[in-house]
Design brief:
homodimer; 250 residues; mainly alpha; three-stranded antiparallel sheet; 3 strands; elongated; DNA-binding
Chain lengths: 250, 250
DNA sequence: TGTCGTGCAGAGGTCCGACCACTAGAATAC
DNA sequence: GTATTCTAGTGGTCGGACCTCTGCACGACA
C-alpha cells in the first residue's frame, strides 16, 4: 500500500487515524463535507475521496449519499465482503470456512460462559425463545440465529474475535444466500441453541464449547448434504502459477 | 456499502469479481491500463479508480505506481491495517489482541501437527535453526520468528485461519514496532519454538497446542512488563456514546 | 389544525481533460 | 561491456463542472 508521507491517500488516512486516536473523532461522528475538508487539508477533493474510500472499504467510515460521511458506528466489522472476495480469489473451500467458524465460535462460547454477564444471558434467552417461535419461518428464524451468535461473541469480551467471527459468517451467508433451510431442521437447531444457552448460563465453559462445536458440525453436514451430497473435500494445491506480464483480456 | 447495480464502484468490483470467479483472472495477473479499461467498461477513469481502490484496500488488487495494477499474489491477507484502524476506533486492548492471537495460533499449531507435511517440517526446522543463529540480532530474529509462525499457519491447511492470524499479528507488530526485544529473552524464545517444532513434527497435536499457548502467554507478559509494568487490564465498556450531528472540528 | 406534497439547499457521485510522478527498458555514450 | 540518459507507458493528482440523492422547511390543501 502507498507510503506514509508522499501519497495523498495515506495522508488522509493518517490524519483521520490521528483524530481517532486522539479522541477527537468517535464512532457516529460526522466529518466535514468533502469540499470543505479537502480545502482544509490542502488537497484536492478527488484525493480526499480516495482516502475516505480506503477507510470506508475497511469499515472505518460510513459514507451516505446526500447525507454526509460518518465514522462507523455499531459493532466493529472488517470489510464486509473482503473474505468473500479473497475466497473467490484464492479458492477457499466451503469446509475451510466452516472449520474456521467452528473453531472461533467454540472458543467464543467458552469465553462467554466464563465472562458473560446477566444482560447477555437475558438476551440469549430471548433469542432462543424467538427461535422456537419462528421455526415455521426460516427467514425470521435466521435473524434470531444470527443475533444469538452475535450476543455470544459480545459476551466473550473480546471484540477482535467477535469481529473475525462476523467476517467469516457474513462470507458464509454470502455464499449460501440461496439455500433456504427446511423447517424440520429448525426445531433441532433451536434445541441445540437452547443447550448452548444453558451451558453458558451455568458457566460451564467446556460444555458450551462442546455443544457449540456439535451445533456447527451438524450445520455444516446439513448444508453439505443439501448442496451436492459431497462430503468435505480435502484438496491440495502445489500450484505452479503462471505470471502474465501482458494484461488479461476483458 | 453502495448498491450493486447503480453505483459505479460496485459495477467495477462485481465485474472483476466475476472475472476472478470464472477463472479469467488469477493471482499475479495484470489488468489493463486504467484508461483502456475504463473505456472498455464505459465508465470514467475516476470511477474505475474508485472501484480498484476498494479492491486494493481489501487486499485483492495490488496497484503499483508506474507499473500497472495486478491481482494480489502471495498468501491471502485481509486489509493490512484494517484491524489496526478498527482497534484505534473501538479501543481494542492489547491483551485482547494477544488473546485472539493465542487462541488462533494454538489451534493452528494443533492442526499443523495433524495435517502438516514433510515440506512444512523442513521449513520449520530451518527457521528454528536460523533463530538460534540470530539470537544476538533481534531484527533478524524477528524475521524468522514471523516466518516460523507463518509456516505453521500454512501447514494447518486452512488458509482462512491463516489469513486471520496474519491480520492480527500485523496489527500487533504495528502497535509495538518500537519495542525491541532483549537478546536474553531470545534464547528462551528459540527454545520454545524448538519445542513447538518437535511437537508438530511428532504429530502431537495436544502438545503443540499447549506449547504454543505457553509461548504466546510468555511473549505477552514479557511485553506487558517492558511496556509499562502494568499487568493485563480487564476493563469494561458500557459506553453511552453521544452522536454528533454537526461535523467535528478539524 | 393537521397532513401531504413540493421545492430547495447541501451533501456525496460521476465525469472530463490536463498534467505530474514513477518505473522499466531502450537507446546512447563511454 | 558497462554505465548513463532518454522515453514510453502507467498510475497519481488536480480542479472544476454537473448529476443525484436526502432531509427538511414551507406552504397548499382538507
Amino acid at each position: 500500500m502507498p507510503k506514509s508521507d508522499t501519497h495523498m491517500t495515506m495522508r488522509v488516512v493518517n490524519h483521520i487515524r490521528t483524530m481517532i486516536e486522539s479522541g477527537g473523532l468517535q464512532p457516529g461522528d460526522r466529518i466535514p463535507p468533502e469540499r470543505e475538508f479537502a480545502r482544509k487539508l490542502r488537497i484536492s477533493r478527488a484525493s480526499l475521496r480516495t482516502g475516505i474510500g480506503y477507510l470506508a472499504a475497511m469499515g472505518v467510515m460510513d459514507v451516505r449519499h446526500g447525507v454526509g460521511t460518518f465514522v462507523a458506528d455499531g459493532p466493529p466489522e472488517l470489510g464486509k465482503s473482503s473474505l468473500s472476495l479473497l475466497g473467490a480469489l484464492h479458492g477457499f473451500q466451503s469446509w475451510q470456512m466452516f472449520e474456521a467458524r467452528r473453531i472461533l465460535e467454540s472458543e467464543l462460547a467458552a469465553m462467554a460462559a466464563e465472562r458473560g454477564r446477566e444482560q447477555h444471558f437475558t438476551a440469549l434467552s430471548e433469542e432462543v425463545a424467538e427461535m422456537y417461535a419462528t421455526v415455521g419461518n426460516p427467514i425470521e428464524y435466521l435473524i434470531h440465529d444470527v443475533r444469538f451468535h452475535r450476543v455470544i461473541a459480545q459476551a466473550s469480551g473480546n471484540p477482535i474475535l467477535a469481529a473475525l467471527m462476523e467476517t467469516i459468517t457474513s462470507a458464509l451467508y454470502d455464499e449460501r444466500r440461496k439455500t433456504a433451510e427446511r423447517s424440520r431442521d429448525l426445531k433441532e437447531s433451536a434445541d441445540l441453541h437452547r443447550e448452548i444457552y444453558r451451558a453458558i448460563r451455568s458457566r460451564n465453559a467446556a460444555e458450551a464449547r462442546a455443544v457449540m462445536e456439535r451445533h456447527l458440525t451438524m450445520a455444516q453436514s446439513a448444508q453439505d448434504l443439501e448442496l451436492s451430497g459431497a462430503p468435505a473435500p480435502l484438496s491440495e494445491n502445489g500450484k505452479p502459477r503462471k505470471v502474465r506480464r501482458k494484461p488479461v483480456e476483458v
